[in-house]
Design brief:
124 residues
């Protein structure tokens, strides 16, 4: 059977992702990142309970470039998840379901994530 005349099924990269889909996927990803960050938080508490040498070792790891990048990304995930959670609270009461409003609030979530992350890290 010759299938060359049949149209090719569109791939994910053919379509432009809607803002609501993008923010929804990012919400799930940031939830996973927050869970991984809690493992690091428990490691921090264990290092603090383990004594000065244990804490100094943990502080050295988190003070490295890779540790700082992780902390910045973790805080960005926290701020994104928070902002998008507030957006969902408005959805829970029936506000913001229209496509233009949903797109605008999606951009607001992303912008507030960047602003809050920068504000936090510049204040430290």
């Amino acid at each position: 059977m010759n299938n060359s005349q049949r149209p090719m099924s569109p791939h994910l990269f053919i379509y432009r992702w809607p803002m609501t889909m993008t923010v929804s996927i990012l919400h799930r990803v940031t939830g996973i990142m927050l869970s991984l960050g809690l493992v690091v938080l428990v490691a921090w508490l264990a290092a603090a309970a383990g004594g000065a040498q244990s804490y100094a070792h943990f502080d050295g790891i988190m003070g490295s470039l890779a540790g700082r990048i992780f902390l910045v990304l973790w805080s960005a995930a926290l701020f994104f998840h928070l902002a998008n959670g507030i957006r969902h609270l408005f959805w829970d009461v029936g506000l913001g379901f229209e496509i233009p409003q949903a797109n605008t609030t999606g951009w607001i979530v992303i912008a507030s994530t960047v602003v809050l992350t920068l504000a936090y890290w510049l204040a430290i």
